[in-house]
Amino acid sequence: IQDWKQCYLEEADKANAAATMAARGGGGGARAFGASSTAATHTTTITIEGKIGKENATRILYHLLLNGPNEQVELKNYFQSGGGNGNNVLHQKNLNQLSSPRAAFVTPMKQQQQSNTPRSTAATITNNEPNIELTMLEYYLFFFLRFPMANQEWEIQLQDQLRRMRYGTSTTAYGQRVYFHLMSSYMQYYLPHGVYHHRPDGGHGTTPRVDVGAGEAPLDRTAELFLRLVIEFWVEGQVSPPTFAEGIQRYRNGRSAFLSTSFASTSSSSSSSLNPTLRDSFELTQPKTAYVSPPSQIQIGVLNLVRHLVSDVTVRNMVKNASVSCQHRQTEEREGRVTVTAGNDDDTSAKIVWCLPPAMSTIQPSIFNYIRVGLTCGSIHDRRSIFHRALEAWLVWIEPWNYVMKRRAVVVSGSGSNSNGSSASATHRAGEFLRNAAATVSSHRVEYYPAYVKPKPTSPSTYSSQWEAYVVSNLNLYTVPLAIFLKRARELDFSSTNEYPRSLALVQRVLRVFSKQVVTVLNSVLNRRADALSASLATMHRDNMKAFCPPSSWKLTDCQLDATNLLEEIFSQYQKRKNEMDIFDRIEARLNALFSGKIGSDEAALQSLLSQVRYLMHLPQDYQVLP
């Protein structure tokens, strides 16, 4: 409440000053809250960062004050009469209580009476609960996005669905299907994708083109409010992780207390142990209070939101242009055509445009915290826990190249459609397949849509150099969650015959992302060997992460110990199970491998895993796991 009061009163003073200047003929006039101009947004950001601890909640307040602070009569009276000083708790009747909109309605007559209340009754006003005036759409968005948190019946229905899945009769409840259909529609409307299509190129095939539309443009007021409400209620949840400054201070306090009681420590070793590395990300992420896992429906909603944002073709277009600029700069620096000067902010040739759309930039710090807290606090043995949902969201975010553009024919109603209504018949599906296959050589209108191609755990990464700028712009989302995963992966069950394939596949799914090309890009930035444009993108990424940006001195090699410990666990458990097999078990395993076409696949998979870890952690090429 102190943060909101400070923001509110400062903006009220600015509005009054602007109005006074306009009345004197100074020009300009007062700017309405929520203005989407670049300069105004930049100024507001600086104010929030300097004085507000929770930026997202404060920005929501800005958007709610549609007509300026002086129009919010109840809040003005409450704050200016001493409310919000810590002795009172502000309850927004329209926001935090599932009450009727009519019960919280404030008439214009009542507002006029409150504005004319004498100072002698200030104490009475202070004890009243002020209301925030909301538009009907704002009111609806608040309740719509809070609904999964307030509806406990969905969790009961989810347990019933899991029970029915054992018998193959599980179906999602109708209310849940309707809710997520509406949520998908709102994401498409407020966070639209760019339009991808082909155009003729001189008779030599087709050339892809992206019509950006609203994907690259700044979010309007309602769209940003929608996204920030999703962040507030779904992504950030009820528990906020500590900033890295708080986590590092807590880490040092704990280490200092331990070293003070250890007589074997020296001054040099104690000073170095007080500086955490990337390997300590798990400890630095521990929440300040008890972690409460979000409801399953919110976890699914966050995963759907990540898929929606990452699959936007605008991301592909913006990142491709930035990557081309970075690679051109790398060529110039290698050939000596430009001079690289460290810390030269005046070098105009080293300027590059941020390559993530506004929606992804806005949610990037929050989704980073959602992933690292989920990986830290979730149950690793429950495949429907926040750990696995956060892991899935992380893998989707750091592998956007798994989305490919596919085409489909747009059939006009009544032409080529199945008139008898049996759209699910095999004949109809076959006809649809043939229309899509022949769409480019026929008169059918074609549309392109992003399709997710889920990679197999053992398949190679499809990363290409056109995604280099994306990796740099999400640097910390590649490194910190990886460090947490390597720390926790040893909890997986590699001893059980049934669980060993699942546990190994999970490790393979994560490590396959970090191909040699991706690791090369990460190391070039972490080791400060990147070109000027890539370094500029990394700086913008760190600025966007704000207080949740880890130290820039962290390296991938900090996690060598966790990676080698994980390898030893996997190799030792595999060798132990192999030694415990009798002659009949060996024959059965051999026959299963023969009929499945995977003879020697276990040994090959382990050697491939070893090769990946060698390159990722910069281990010697002759490194082997001891038996």
Written account of the structure:
The chain is mostly helical and 627 residues long. The protein is 56% helix and 4% strand. The chain is built from 27 helices and four strands. The strands form two sheets. Strands 1-2 form a two-stranded antiparallel sheet. Strands 3-4 form a two-stranded antiparallel sheet. Helix 11 packs parallel to helix 17 (358-377). The longest helix has 22 residues, at 2-23.
Helix content: 55-70%
Q: What sort of overall outline do the alpha carbons produce when their principal axes are compared?
A: globular
- The total strand number stands at 4
Q: Give the number of helices.
A: 27
Please summarize the sheet with the most strands: 2 strands, antiparallel
End-to-end Cα distance:
60 Å
Low-pLDDT residue intervals, each spanning 5 or more residues: 27-53, 86-113, 119-127, 200-207, 414-423
What is the alpha-carbon Rg in Å? 28 Å
Q: What share of the residues does DSSP label as strand, in percent?
A: under 5%
What's the mean pLDDT score? 77
Strand order of the largest sheet: 1-2
Structural class: mainly alpha
